[in-house]
């Protein structure tokens, strides 16, 4: 999986979020999009995911040396963000089974194993509406990291996690994301410390 941006820019009304961004994100590498709150990190992440269009420049997604149409990119990426809702009326087990209908999990990870790995065995039959914010974030991490896709996009992935949750996050990244394209949007090094490449969104404001 590769995402190539050439002189890319995104604006809302007359305000440019970023401009003249030329960069290549490649599978097998990890990238951090950094900058202060409200600087546009999440916007760039959504552009990379294909869910938001740019206003100028060019973006190309490719996989196995073949270009991907914009409306097929979602099949190749998973995303974890605190603002993405989970289906509260479902139990965790129901939700993960529902999720894998349209985005299958890695073949060696059935739903029951995933639930055990994120430490939510005792709550698997409880509706997600009764979960704490930290438990919900573990669910978001699970659906993103265990999805069988070449690109994993993480927006402030440790939001609401306690120390044990942060440790789990780092373990999951280390064990299951080494061969993927990983992009983390954050201003907290706890979340992106493993990333070998750093992009400061403020460098692309002019």
How would you describe the overall organization of this protein?
This protein is of the alpha/beta class and 206 residues long. It has a single domain, classed as P-loop containing nucleotide triphosphate hydrolases (Rossmann fold). The protein has six helices and nine strands; from the N terminus they run E-E-E-H-E-E-E-H-H-H-E-H-E-H-E. The protein has helices spanning 41-49, 92-102, 111-117, 133-145, 163-176, 189-192; strands spanning 2-12, 15-26, 30-34, 56-63, 66-68, 77-80, 151-155, 181-185, 197-200. The strands form two sheets. Strands 6-7-8-3-9 form a five-stranded parallel β-sheet, with helices on both faces. A four-stranded antiparallel β-sheet has the order 2-1-4-5, covered by helices on one side. A hairpin with a 2-residue loop joins strand 1 (2-12) and strand 2 (15-26). The longest helix has 14 residues, at 163-176. The two termini are 29 Å apart. The model has no long low-confidence stretch (mean pLDDT 96).
Q: What is the structure about, briefly put?
A:
By secondary structure, this protein is α/β, with parallel strands linked by helices. The chain has one domain: Rossmann fold, CATH 3.40.50.300.
Specify Rg, calculated over alpha carbons.
17 Å
Element order: H for helix, E for strand: EEEHEEEHHHEHEHE
Low-confidence segments, given as residue ranges, are none
Binned, the helix content reads 25-40%
User: What is the CATH C level class, in words?
Assistant: Alpha Beta
Distance between the termini: 29 Å
Q: What is the average per-residue confidence, as pLDDT, rounded to a whole number?
A: 96
- Principal-axis shape: globular
- Spatial strand sequence of the major β-sheet: 6-7-8-3-9
What structural category characterises the helix and strand content?
alpha/beta
- Biggest beta-sheet profile: 5 strands, parallel
CATH architecture: 3-Layer(aba) Sandwich
For CATH, the homologous superfamily is named as P-loop containing nucleotide triphosphate hydrolases
Number of helical elements: 6
| CATH-derived topology | Rossmann fold
Strand fraction:
25-35%
β-strand number: 9
């Amino acid at each position: 999986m590769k995402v190539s941006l050439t002189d890319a820019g995104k604006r809302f009304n007359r305000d440019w979020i970023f401009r003249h961004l030329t960069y290549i994100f490649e599978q097998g590498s990890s990238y951090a999009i950094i900058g202060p709150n409200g600087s546009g990190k999440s916007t760039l992440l959504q552009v990379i995911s294909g869910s938001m269009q740019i206003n100028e420049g060019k973006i190309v997604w490719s996989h196995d040396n073949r270009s991907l149409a914009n409306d097929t990119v979602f099949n190749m990426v998973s995303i974890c963000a605190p603002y993405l809702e989970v289906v509260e009326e479902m139990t965790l087990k129901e939700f993960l089974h529902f999720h894998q209908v349209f985005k299958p999990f890695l073949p060696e990870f059935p739903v029951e194993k995933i639930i055990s790995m994120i430490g939510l065995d005792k709550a698997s039959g409880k509706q997600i509406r009764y979960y704490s914010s930290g438990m919900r974030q573990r669910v978001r991490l699970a659906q993103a990291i265990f999805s069988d896709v070449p690109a994993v996009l993480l927006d402030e992935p440790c939001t609401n996690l306690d120390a044990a949750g942060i440790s789990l996050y780092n373990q999951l990244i280390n064990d299951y994301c080494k061969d993927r394209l990983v992009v983390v949007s954050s201003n907290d090094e706890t979340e992106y410390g493993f990333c070998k490449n750093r992009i400061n969104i403020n460098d692309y404001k002019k």
